[in-house]
Design goal:
A 7-stranded antiparallel sheet has the order 15-12-14-13-17-18-16, with helices on both faces. By secondary structure, it is of the alpha+beta class. One of its GO terms (biological process) is respiratory electron transport chain.
């Protein structure tokens, strides 16, 4: 490859200001969110629109340059970080940041890949509509990245993950062709579902440049409560009760161990421990009601009263205002921040069938303790869809870096084996990237891996689209 000729052609196409090469300019694009991976790049390229993105891909193909697509760079599996060769280019899609259309009557919104998730939510709200995907990183993550990793978040229980919230895509293929699949249709039975190939593929099959997304009616009221329980089994019982009493009004159902709440209170003293005495588990649940706040409050209070009478819930706090509701959610959202403040830890983003969550925890916690005695378990997540962030911290007083070095491999292997034994997945919402790429080979069948490789070879025969991600060698 002639670097000079390639870069000159890129400048001619994009303009010199959007071909970044200075170390200071490109440094933020070369390291992942968790700072696990630091790559090098020939350049960071910033196309302005879908047509320019397609032309840029054709240019990369002509010069044999492999491409790493990147949105907000908030991914947690190293899927948007280049390798260390210095020969790949990062294609940043942040300039593709227009809301193209809001069709309130069709309940759809079409946004370009670089639009921030928070801006999609705001654009929907301006038309009295709801886009329900909600993540801690919503102020910095982009719609293209959300779809590339099939993001989940806190409202999957009611609305589904990113895949369920997308009706159509616009995609640049690995050959530089532009596929316009931006159809705002709920029904289209005219062949293979190409949309679903690209969602969750982490940019290995093409570059998502825009998406048509589902919108929903804005709820008239949201009611939030924090319930204290004795065990994950009781949390599952509360979930079953809530689903039977509230049905589709149940929007969120987040499980948190007592240690999670204690850790937040320790690191952030302004966020006080919420209960008068410790309880093994807590559940943050939310109802979204299209009728009224009064109806939502009465239903939530009736639900919790029934749960207390049946011995499921030991204590509960019902938010009396929006500020109190936000404070309860802030407790949940502060858990990862509290972990980061205490040093490195062994993280797992796993899912098992909802019915298997208590059994998984009962089986796996002792195994981890046997491998790493004294390890502290930071277990929290979206119980309503079976997704747990099963994280392991060093014992009190131990060196977190040494703990990570000595125990990450055996602990992760044991956790993944237990997940597999409970018919689960080693990556629920963060993707595989390069972090879990090789591990996935141990848990996917040869048939599944062969099919994935055949799809990759068919769509990207030159292997230039985000190589080294998702598919194990």
């Amino acid at each position: 490859m002639n670097d000079t000729a390639f870069l000159t052609a890129c400048r001619d196409l994009l303009g010199g200001d959007h071909v970044l090469r200075d170390d200071a300019d490109i440094a933020p694009y070369l390291i992942d969110q968790r700072k696990r991976y630091v790559g090098r790049a020939l350049a960071v390229l910033r196309p302005a629109d879908a047509a320019q993105t397609a032309a840029l891909v054709r240019l990369c193909v002509a010069h044999g340059v492999s491409m790493v697509p990147q949105g907000g760079n908030t991914g947690l599996a190293g899927g948007a970080t280049p390798d260390t060769s210095g020969q790949q280019v990062v294609i940043s899609l942040r300039r593709l940041d227009r809301i193209r259309q809001v069709d309130a009557e069709n309940m759809t919104l079409t946004a370009e890949a670089g639009v921030l998730l928070a801006n999609v939510q705001t654009a929907a709200a301006a038309e009295q509509r709801l886009f329900p995907l909600s993540l801690a990183a919503e102020g910095s993550c982009t719609i293209g990245g959300n779809l590339a990793t099939n993001a989940g978040g806190t409202a999957v229980l009611r609305y589904g993950n990113a895949r369920e919230l997308c009706l159509g895509l616009e995609v640049v293929t690995p050959q530089g062709e532009l596929w316009d699949g931006l159809r705002g249709l709920r029904k289209d039975n005219t062949g293979y579902d190409l949309r679903d190939l690209f969602i969750g593929a982490e940019g290995t099959l093409g570059l998502i440049t825009a998406a048509t997304l589902k919108l929903f009616a804005q709820p008239a009221a949201r009611m939030t409560a924090l319930a204290a329980l004795d065990s994950p089994a009781q949390a599952l019982a509360l979930l079953n009760l809530a689903q039977s009493m509230a049905g589709p009004l149940l929007t969120g159902f987040e499980l948190m161990s007592d240690f999670c709440l204690q850790l937040v209170a320790q690191v952030f003293p302004q966020q006080r421990y919420p209960f008068g005495e410790p309880h093994a588990q807590a559940v943050l649940l939310e109802l979204s009601d299209n009728e009224s706040e009064t109806h939502a409050r009465e239903l939530l209070e009736r639900l919790l009263t029934t749960a207390v009478e049946r011995g499921i819930v030991r204590d509960a706090i019902v938010a009396a205002s929006l500020a109190q509701s936000n404070a309860l959610w802030h407790l949940r959202e502060s858990i990862p921040l509290a972990q980061s403040a205490t040093g490195l830890n062994i993280k797992h983003d796993i899912a098992v069938p909802v019915s298997q969550v208590p059994a998984f925890l009962a089986a796996t916690d002792p195994i981890v303790q046997q491998i790493a005695p004294g390890a502290r378990m930071v277990t929290f997540g979206h119980l309503g869809d079976g997704n747990l962030h099963y994280n392991v911290m060093a014992p009190a007083g131990a060196d977190p870096e040494a703990f990570l070095r000595d125990y990450q491999a055996p602990v992760t292997s044991a956790v993944h084996d237990s997940v597999h034994a409970h018919r689960g997945t080693i990556s629920a919402e963060h993707g595989l990237g390069q972090f879990k790429r090789d591990a996935s080979a141990h848990y996917k069948s040869p048939v599944e891996l062969a099919l994935m490789r055949q799809i990759k070879a068919a769509l990207d025969p030159l292997g230039l689209m985000n190589p080294g991600k998702v598919l194990p060698d």
